[in-house]
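One chain given next:
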Amino acid sequence: MMFTGIIEAASQVVSLVKKENLFVLAVKKPAAFNDVRIGDSIANDGVCLTVTSIKNGCFYFDLMKETLDATTLKHWKAGGVVNLERALKAESRIGGHFVTGHVDAIGVISDVRTLTNYVEYRISIPKALMRYVVPKGSVAVDGISLTVGEVKKKWFAVYFIPHTLAVTGIGSRVPGDKVNIETDLLAKYILKSKG
């Protein structure tokens, strides 16, 4: 599956229930997602998940332990806001960048700075991933396609305009909160090809 990082809806976590060998996540179905069928993929805060059931106005997703361990999903509670994006169609415009929905790491918001007409978030990630984060490059934060601003040894900065803050769940995040990070797919392939 492939996504673009352009969030289509901010929805709400309904429940996260433990069952034998998996967890079941229920997310409120946005009105615009009427074309979604069982088996379709939806990015939930940047995590590619398969719809296993649709009932009672909710999408249901089965989560393995590995998914919970590698993402912020294990911290989700009923009522929390989640960014949703349906999988990219071949004929779609790519408004963001290529996002796979495979989270590289959990980042930590180290600072939030509110400035005139935008908000700067500074995010710390594991040192090994910083090689894929470059100024003017792309990164997905909770599934949102963003351009990287400043890059330091221990953190990088991304900037949010009022529109993005209004239509996604990122505006409620504060320093210390954890976010799903997917670094730029193209940067990974380029660095891999160089050995």
In short: The helical segments are 65-70, 162-167, 185-193. Residues 139 and 146 are 5 Å apart (CA to CA).
